Amino acid sequence: MEQFNEEYSQLLLPKEWLVKVNGQTSTPYLIKFYSSSVDLTCCIMITDTKSTWTEVLSSQQFARRWRECNRRINSPSLDDDEEEAWRTRHLDLLSRAHTLGGMAELSFEVVESKIGDFAFEVECKAFKWRWETIFVGYKISAEILSKHLIMPLISVSHLAFSSSDVVGDLSSSNLEKATDKVARTARRTLDMHVKNALSRPRLVTTIRRMTAIFNFISDPVAIITTVADDPGLHALQEPTPKIERSPEHPKSTHTPTPEPNNRGAAPGGSTRGLSRDSGSATDTDEEGPSMLPPEAAAAGSRADQQPDMHMLSPTPSAKPSPVPGAARSRSITKAPLSDTDSSPVRPVKKAKARVPSSDEDSEEERKRLAAQIKSGAAPMRADTAAHQTRRETVLNFRANAVRYRFPILLSMKNRIISRFGRQHTKALDDGVASCRGSCFVF
């Protein structure tokens, strides 16, 4: 059995569709048949409009199938010429049976297939024949049905609805001319042909109503005989969203505290370090007396306020500020609160403890020594680079002592001692205990 291919599909295109119905299942089948008198081959294509089956027989297969189906008729042994003539006569008989007139005289019965997927028998008084067809697959079935059935039906429907005359009343010659004209137009521009055919309101609504009634739709839509109605495709107005206003809160009469300007008050340190130091001093004054024990307060201060090491190690060219008290007075200045302020009453700050008299004596001694140095009365030690660095570090510690809390001062003192030694321990202790004075003598 030969394979059905595109060549046989092309040979079946000019053939007409034949119809037979299976009486047991009431299923209609559409059939196309082709035979060649040159090589004595034949093929058939049958479909139920969902699947397609085909069979191709060569000359030898045709002769064997005929003798198998018609054993009651004696077939004598023939030579080659007589065998070819015999095959030609019987193939012509089978071809005449597969025509519009011959198919009406044939009986049709679906039988069990022996070698194929779908088998059926046709029979008349002259002979009996059986086809053993093979399923070609759904993809090829769709291509065959589109080319052989669907597209021609669309074109014929377009011809029937676009013609000014009734197609059934046209003569054969006029119908052939009209058909050829529509077919040539469809062949040149298939896309425009399908668009024009299925854009006619009368045609598409007729197909729609036919489909609805054919599939038992209870309320089919009426057929439109005029042009299509205007759908009114206009831009829709979007609804304006409603803006919900949040409830108004009563305005506070609290006067914000101005940020202290400590720029230029830091001796030998960066602006970033000064800003952080000023904020620490302001927070200290505003917090009031702490409610925690000294050990907990010291631990929290270490976590929140880590001293900047840039303040402890200035460059040799940096000069200490002669008036550290001015920076302190600016950093702790606060704007007076209004009488109508709704904030809670802050606790009264405790007065700072007085420095013992021994510290005052040492402070007076340092001032006296500093005055002698400035006037040249006391001999000055020759400063080396390392000594100058230590001196300026201790001076910075002394000048910025008022900016830090007690735990921070202790931490800075320990770092200076670990770096420069314990020769300035006395001056560091005095810087921690006292916030007055301007310089030290080493």
Concise overview:
The chain has about 450 residues and is of the alpha+beta class. The chain has helices at about 5-10, 60-70, 80-95, 100-105, 140-160, 170-190, 190-195, 200-215, 270-285, 295-305, 325-330, 355-375, 385-400, 405-420, 425-435, and strands spanning about 20, 25-35, 40-45, 50-55, 105-110, 120-125, 130-135. Strands 1-2-3-4-7-6-5 form a 7-stranded antiparallel beta sheet.
Topology (SSEs and partners):
Elements lengths: L5 H7 L5 E5 L4 E9 L6 E6 L4 E6 L1 H11 L10 H18 L2 H4 L3 E5 L6 E6 L4 E8 L2 H25 L9 H17 L1 H8 L3 H14 L56 H17 L6 H11 L19 H8 L25 H19 L9 H15 L6 H15 L4 H9 L9
Antiparallel strand pairs: 1-2, 2-3, 3-4, 4-7, 5-6, 6-7
Helix pairs in contact: 5-6, 5-7, 6-7, 13-14, 13-15, 14-15
